[in-house]
Amino acid sequence: MTRIILATNASHDMATEYLESWFQKTVDIAKQQKDTIIFELSKTHANKIEFEELIEKEKPQLIIFNGHGGSDVVCGYEYNILVKCPENHAVLKGKIVHALSCDSGKTLGPECIKIGTLAYLGYNDEFKLTTFGKNTNEEQLADDIAGFFLDPAFEAINSLVEGKTAKESFDRSQKMHKENLMILLASPDPTYNTSVASRLFHNLCHQVCLGDQSASF
User: Fold this and answer.
1) CA-CA distance, 142 to 202, in Å (whole number)?
2) % of residues, the chain, pLDDT over 70
3) Residue 3 to residue 174: CA distance in whole angstroms
4) Contact 140, 21 (CB under 8 A)
5) Per the domain annotation, does 216 fall within a domain?
6) Which terminal residue of the chain has fewer beta carbons within 10 Å of its beta carbon, N or C?
7) Please, what sign has the CA dihedral across residues 204, 210, 214, 217?
8) How many other CB atoms are there within 10 angstroms of residue 156's CB atom?
9) Is residue 50 part of a domain?
10) Residue 94: how many CB atoms within 10 A of its CB?
């Protein structure tokens, strides 16, 4: 059976542009997987109409959101609402979902599990990100401080794409969060071992893996 991935990349401000830059690594990993197709809705295409149409047409088993969000919502381009509870979260029924967006693991995630979403990985509070404010894709990928935050976050996404279970993907991400945190705490730079470390620790504490821990793509 062909494995179908649907990903949305809001990519309308610096934070979401960084997410899209990192997502290209995920695309490369997906292309290496057998019988796997990835559909990406980026920028203006990350809107509710195209999102729901693609779900209906292609029936993806794995959905990846990269954008802003709230406790009951995930957003696309310029805060266009893609999924909101209780309006249309039923579109995620039977899916494995990863939402790299603030807060959506607080209400939307649990409600999705109640209506049959297989697994929901994300964050139940703000996803904190520190960068050097680079502009091009290459510069963003080379941004070391952003890597402390995005490498662990995308470890969960990439693990799901590789076919790891929800629990395995979560654990791998948590492990990398902790490894990066130790590097920051050991740094002689007071900015790194205080404010940057505390922001990464926040992400570590608020990452969630809901639903069937054995679910895999």
Assistant:
1) 23
2) 100
3) 26
4) yes
5) no
6) N
7) negative
8) 26
9) yes
10) 12
Domain total of the chain: 1
Query: CATH number for the domain including 140?
Result: 3.40.50.1460
CA neighbours within 13 Å on the CB side: how many for 164?
17
Q: What tokens appear for 12 in the block?
A: 């309308």
In a domain, 217, yes or no: no
74 neighbors 47 (Cβ within 8 angstroms): no
Model pTM?
0.97
Q: Could you tell me which residues come within 8 angstroms of residue 96 by beta carbon, excluding any fewer than 6 positions away?
A: 61, 62, 63, 117, 118, 119, 160, 166, 215, 216, 217
Mean pLDDT of 140-161: 98
> Residue length, the chain?
217
**Domain span including residue 13:** 3-211
Mean pLDDT computed over 73-92: 98
